[in-house]
């Protein structure tokens, strides 16, 4: 599909779209706790993500950054994997693995190409410190780091998508969300944003391939960020 000519700003989902959370966490566990099934541990940690956010959105918890939600989930799952005895320093360091996630092999090169033509910003439920540390370590060339933390609302709340457009004083149709998750893209589309789907079949690990079939409602569908750059003429 041709590049929507009016798009000026590309917003990026991060976990799974730009960085490989599963592979990074599994590798960290292999290094620190080789006796633990890193695949199962990564999946269990991620499984707690939506329920934890739901507690905030329902008012059960006050506004909580993702770093704190990750820690709540971590403390809950550690005993399940025989790690209930980890001390506070070890728990704190393990929780920061989310700041150290590795990019997919195409991410830095793809973003670098896209940056020549578009303004690039994160739009993640991850908090600002996490996203900034991740970008610094991985060399992700953002023009701006935006987060649910800015809007005190998690995606897919419309406040995130519309808030990001408003930061740049752009109408929604001049903004495109890039993500590997159809629910995120549907939320953006409902707010009038353009959408680009990125295939990440191994997001949940090689043992759990993900269906990456196209969704016709998206403006663009790309294998990776390099192909997205091709499609957008960058």
Main attributes of the structure:
2 domains; 12% strand; DNA polymerase, domain 1; six-stranded parallel beta sheet; single chain; Rossmann fold; 11 helices; 234 residues; 6 strands; alpha/beta; globular
Report on this structure.
- Catalyzes the hydrolytic dehalogenation of small (S)-2-haloalkanoic acids to yield the corresponding (R)-2-hydroxyalkanoic acids.
- It comes from Ramlibacter aquaticus.
- Keywords: Hydrolase.
- Its EC number is 3.8.1.2.
- InterPro entries: 2-HAD, HAD-like_sf, HAD-SF_hydro_IA, HAD_sf, PGP-like_dom2, S-2-haloacid_dehalogenase.
- The protein is an alpha/beta fold and 234 residues long.
- It folds into two domains: 9-20 and 101-231, Rossmann fold (3-Layer(aba) Sandwich); 21-99, DNA polymerase, domain 1, CATH 1.10.150.240.
- The chain is 43% helix and 12% strand.
- It has a six-stranded parallel beta sheet with strand order 3-2-1-4-5-6, with helices on both faces.
- The radius of gyration is 18 Å and the shape is globular.
- The model has no long low-confidence stretch (mean pLDDT 95).
Entry summary:
With 234 residues, the protein is of the alpha/beta class.
Q: End-to-end span in angstroms?
A: 15 Å
Alpha-beta classification: alpha/beta
The radius of gyration computed from the alpha-carbon positions, rounded to a whole number of angstroms, is 18 Å
CATH superfamily of the largest domain: HAD superfamily/HAD-like
Envelope shape: globular
User: How is the CATH topology of the largest domain named?
Assistant: Rossmann fold
Helical residues, percent: 40-55%
For the biggest β-sheet, the strand order reads 3-2-1-4-5-6
Number of folding domains? 2
Number of helices: 11
Strand content: 5-15%
The string of secondary-structure elements, in order, is EHHHHHHEHEHHEHEEH
Query: What's the mean pLDDT score?
Result: 95
Low-confidence stretches: none
- CATH top level of the largest domain is Alpha Beta
Number of strands: 6
What characterizes the major β-sheet? 6 strands, parallel
């Amino acid at each position: 599909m041709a590049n929507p000519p009016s798009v000026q700003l590309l917003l990026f989902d991060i976990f799974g779209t730009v960085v490989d959370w599963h592979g990074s966490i599994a590798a960290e566990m292999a290094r620190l706790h080789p006796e633990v099934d890193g695949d199962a541990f990564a999946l269990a940690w991620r499984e707690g993500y939506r329920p934890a956010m739901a507690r905030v959105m329902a008012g059960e918890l006050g506004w909580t950054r993702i770093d704190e939600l990750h820690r709540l989930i971590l403390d809950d799952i550690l005993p399940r994997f025989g790690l209930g005895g980890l001390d506070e320093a070890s728990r704190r360091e393990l929780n920061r693995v989310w700041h150290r996630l590795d990019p997919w092999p195409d991410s830095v090169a793809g973003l670098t190409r896209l940056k020549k033509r578009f303004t690039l910003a994160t739009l993640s439920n991850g908090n600002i410190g996490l996203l900034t540390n991740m970008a610094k370590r991985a060399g992700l060339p953002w023009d701006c780091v935006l987060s649910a933390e800015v809007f005190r609302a998690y995606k897919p709340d419309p406040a995130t998508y519309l808030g990001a457009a408003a930061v740049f004083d752009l109408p929604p149709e001049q903004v495109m969300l890039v993500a590997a998750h159809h629910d995120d893209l549907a939320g953006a589309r409902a707010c009038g944003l353009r959408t680009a789907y990125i295939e990440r079949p191994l997001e949940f690990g090689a043992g759990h391939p993900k269906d990456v079939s196209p969704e016709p409602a998206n403006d663009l569908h790309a294998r990776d960020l390099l192909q997205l750059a091709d499609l957008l003429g960058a």
